[in-house]
């Protein structure tokens, strides 16, 4: 059992490191993890759940705003992008945040095609991150079920 | 001025009472957790108007107010001005977005802030301000 736990822990460490190395996560995610304790063991999951709810809502708002016949309200699109940028920054969702920075510039330039393309990328990116973080939580669960402790991962 | 250690913070922080003013539920939950992690207690307001009402109703005294800038009903600049007019003496720390330009930050400071921090907030950003509160 110890060997199995050790293997799972190694797998977990490598997976977390890959998420940072591939730019999915940044230091703010580390901060969130540091805030989780025995008193709030699901803190990170709860925060991420709120974040992904935000993504669904805001991406929907942006899609509707860009789908308007007639004049597109780029200010409205931009306001939603701004919110998503804030949320993604708060949880350490680095790629999503990066896309939002580009998206904001496209809104300011009133670049319709650019905005539509960027929205599609944002949609793909947050869903990709969600799937990857779900894999992370599944690994954590496997470690605990195997009798081990989820290791702290030093990303530096 | 000697920097307080985390041990010193341990002794005082139990009295640290913080008001977190932000319209984003995600920020509220994270900032509350940060304050709790450093041993403080917190109350939240979903916008500036709520923050004003909390103070107007009396009985509330906060060591620190974390004030978001962009909020509905009443934004951070207006709220800070109003609280200072009401003679609120708490340390008020503005929380800004990196997208805010220098002029916007200056206007926020001039409304009556003691400090301004850029999002996202972290323990490392908050602790030096608590050191200042303790030294005051």
From TrEMBL, chain A:
Modified residues (Phosphohistidine): 82
Main location group: cytoplasm
An MF annotation (GO) of this entry: histidine phosphotransfer kinase activity
GO biological process assignments: cytokinin-activated signaling pathway; phosphorelay signal transduction system
Keyword line: Acetylation, Cytokinin signaling pathway, Cytoplasm, Nucleus, Phosphoprotein, Two-component regulatory system
PROSITE patterns: HPT
UniProt GO cellular component terms: cytosol; nucleus
CDD domains (UniProt xref): HPT
HPt domain span: 40-147
Any one Pfam family match given in the protein's UniProt record, by short name: Hpt
Record text about domains: Histidine-containing phosphotransfer domain (HPt) contains an active histidine that mediates the phosphotransfer.
The name this protein goes by in its record: Histidine-containing phosphotransfer protein
Function: Functions as a two-component phosphorelay mediators between cytokinin sensor histidine kinases and response regulators (B-type ARRs). Plays an important role in propagating cytokinin signal transduction.
Location of the protein in the cell: Cytoplasm, Cytosol; Nucleus
Highest taxon listed in the record's lineage: Eukaryota
From TrEMBL, chain B:
Source domain of life: Eukaryota
PROSITE patterns: RESPONSE_REGULATORY
GO BP term, pick one: phosphorelay signal transduction system
Record keywords, A-Z: Phosphoprotein
Chain positions found as 4-aspartylphosphate: 68
InterPro entries (UniProt xref): CheY-like_superfamily, Sig_transdc_resp-reg_receiver, ST_Response_Regulator
KW Repeat (keyword) present: no
Domain Response regulatory: from-to ranges: 17-134
A UniProt-annotated Pfam family: Response_reg
PANTHER family to which the protein is assigned, alphabetical: TWO-COMPONENT RESPONSE REGULATOR, TWO-COMPONENT RESPONSE REGULATOR ARR22
Descriptive protein name: Response regulatory domain-containing protein
């Amino acid at each position: 059992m110890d060997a199995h736990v050790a293997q799972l822990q190694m797998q977990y460490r490598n997976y977390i490191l890959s998420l940072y190395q591939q730019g999915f996560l940044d230091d703010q995610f580390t901060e969130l993890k540091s805030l989780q304790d025995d008193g709030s063991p699901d803190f990170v999951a709860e925060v991420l759940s709120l974040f992904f709810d935000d993504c669904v809502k805001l991406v929907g708002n942006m899609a509707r705003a860009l789908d308007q016949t007639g004049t597109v309200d780029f200010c409205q699109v931009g306001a939603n992008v701004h919110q998503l940028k804030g949320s993604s920054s708060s949880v350490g969702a680095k790629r999503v945040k990066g896309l939002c920075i580009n998206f904001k510039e496209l809104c300011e330039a009133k670049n319709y095609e650019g905005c539509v393309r960027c929205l599609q990328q944002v949609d793909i990116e947050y869903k990709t991150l969600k799937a990857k973080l779900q894999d992370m939580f599944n690994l954590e669960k496997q470690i605990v079920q195997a009798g081990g402790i989820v290791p702290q991962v030093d990303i530096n | 001025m000697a920097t307080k250690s985390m041990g010193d913070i341990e002794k005082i922080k139990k009295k640290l009472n913080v008001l977190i003013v932000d319209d984003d539920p995600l920020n509220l939950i994270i900032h509350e957790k940060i304050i709790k992690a450093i041993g403080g207690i917190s109350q939240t307001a979903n916008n500036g108007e709520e923050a004003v009402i909390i103070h107007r109703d009396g009985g509330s005294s906060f060591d620190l107010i974390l004030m978001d800038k962009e909020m509905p009903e009443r934004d951070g600049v207006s709220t800070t001005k109003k609280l200072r007019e009401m003679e609120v003496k708490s340390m008020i720390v503005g929380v800004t977005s990196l997208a805010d330009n220098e002029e916007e930050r200056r206007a926020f400071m001039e409304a009556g802030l003691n400090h301004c921090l850029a999002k996202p907030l972290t323990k490392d950003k908050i602790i030096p301000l608590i050191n200042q509160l303790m030294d005051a």
